Amino acid sequence: MKRIFIGVTFLIPFLSQAQDSTKTVGLSEVTVTANLQSTEIRKTARNVTVITAQDIEKAPVKTLDGILQYALNVDVRSRAPLGVQADVSIRGGNFDQTLILVDGIKMNDPQTGHHSLNLPFPLSTIEKIEILQGGASRVFGPSAFSGVINIITKKNQPSQVNVGLAGGEYGLYQLNTSVGLTTEKQSTLVAAEKIHSDGYAHNTAFDRHNLYGRTALSLNKTTLALQGGFMDNQFGASNFYHPKFYNQYEQVKQYFVVAQADRQLTRQWYSNLTGSWRRHFDLYDFDNYRETKPASVNFHQTNVYNIEWRNRWTHAWGTTSFGAEWRRESIISNRLGDALAKPKAVPAFFGQKYTFGKDRDNVNVYLEHLKRWERLTLVAGTLFNINSQFGNEWYPGVDLSYTLTDRVNVYASANRAVRYPTFTEMYLNSSTVIADPNVQPEKAWSYEVGTKRFTAVDQLTLSAFYRQSSTAIDKIKRPDQAVPRIENIRNLNTFGVEVAYTLQISQVVNKPNYWLQRLTFNYAYISADQKQLNFQSFYTLNYLRHKLSLGANVRLAKNLTLDAWYTLKKREGDYQWDASTPPQPYATIHLVDTRLSWTQPKFRLFADVNNLINQTYYEHGFVQQPGRWLTGGISLTL
Question: Is 261 helix (H, G, I), strand (E, B) or coil?
Answer without folding.
Answer: strand
